[in-house]
Design goal:
Elements (H helix, E strand, L loop, with lengths): L2 E5 L4 H10 L4 E6 L11 E4 L5 H10 L3 E4 L10 H21 L4 E5 L23 H4 L4 H16 L4 E7 L1 E3 L6 H6 L3 E5 L5 E6 H13 L4 E5 L4 E3 H7 L3 E5 L1 H13 L22 H7 L7 H9 L1
Parallel strand pairs: 1-2, 1-4, 2-3, 4-5, 5-6, 6-10, 7-9, 8-12
Antiparallel strand pairs: 9-11
Helix pairs in contact: 1-7, 2-3, 3-5
Length: about 300
């Protein structure tokens, strides 16, 4: 049985990916924090990917594939720490793949790397420029991770590098920024804007990562769910009340509250509730046969629970 190492396995999405892959592979998990929901039969290493011990684990375990989900995506951590963990951790994973003959690497990127800009076309494909850091410097690390992994994709053709850029992920287990935003009772929005947004269920994301490994998909892929809805529909369907605010007041207020630790999102996030960032997921569907199993109603219901 082939072996898969799942980094970030203690997180909600990593845990789901490990459990899905365990149906067909021997699973080894790694994370900085304890894996509280670890099935007893699966091995786990609590470690920092940036440290030498991670390389020791890869050398000893010799995984066939690595599913890399060990990223800090919230903004509660210091920016320098987030950047170090995300970028230096990914570089260490990539180097270990080259050194120890890992055959496949799946990197869990984000749709946020494209950025939310007024000139964005609807349903961007994978060739669209990565503008995320132009107006949202707080996610610059995600853009750099995606770019770094893309370079390995071409430099090391013997490794099937798969970069997956999912749209907004919601579910019972994941703790995404968009999930926290939609769980607010009164949800601030930018007055005069109501962009189309896409969502995907966490279980479908786990299935997509498993399919990427099973089909040895190689390349950069958008990952989309069952469709798109206006932001205010998503707010209503998840039980919130939209509160439109003039941007001239909202942006400085968000900047101040974020700096003081009173609001969880930096001001750059405002653009994602103004402008569209919708993706075309047809390439991944063609490469793997992926079809989302969860509809929008089930996705939104998972947030209301």
């Amino acid at each position: 049985m082939d072996k898969v190492l799942v980094t970030g396995v203690a997180g909600g999405q990593g845990n789901l990916v490990a459990r899905r892959l365990a149906r067909a592979y021997e699973i080894v998990g790694a994370d900085r924090t304890p894996w509280k929901e670890r099935p007893r039969e699966l091995r786990f290493y609590q470690l920092d990917l940036r440290k030498r011990r991670f390389e020791d684990v890869v050398r000893r375990e010799r995984p066939h594939a690595i599913a890399h989900l060990a990223f800090i995506r919230h903004f509660e951590e210091a920016p320098a720490v987030r950047h170090q963990v995300n970028l230096a951790g990914t570089k260490r994973v990539l180097e270990c793949c080259v050194t120890y003959g890992v055959k496949q690497l799946v990197v869990f990127s984000s749709a946020y790397v494209y950025g939310a800009l007024p000139e964005n076309p609807y349903y961007m494909d994978e060739g669209y420029p990565l503008n995320g850091s132009r107006t949202y410097p707080d996610v610059r690390d995600l853009v750099e991770v995606d770019t770094l992994a893309s370079a390995y994709l071409w430099q090391y053709p013997e490794i099937a590098v798969t970069i997956i850029r999912p749209v907004n992920v919601l579910g019972y287990s994941v703790h995404s920024a968009i999930g926290r935003y939609l769980q607010l009772e009164y949800v601030p929005t930018a007055m005069g804007f109501n962009p189309m947004m896409q969502f995907i269920h966490e279980q479908d994301v786990a299935e997509a990562i498993a399919l990427a490994i099973e089909r040895r998909a190689r390349g950069v892929f958008n990952l989309t769910g069952p469709g798109a809805v206006p932001l205010k529909v998503a707010i209503a369907e998840t039980g919130g009340t939209a509160v439109p605010l003039p941007e001239v007041l909202a942006r400085p207020a968000v900047r101040t509250m974020f700096r003081l630790g009173l609001y969880p999102f930096p001001p750059g996030a405002i653009d994602f509730v103004k402008y569209p960032c919708t993706l075309d997921g047809s390439r991944f569907a063609a490469a793997t046969g992926f079809k989302p199993r969860f509809g929008l109603e089930e996705i939104f219901a998972s947030l209301r629970s």
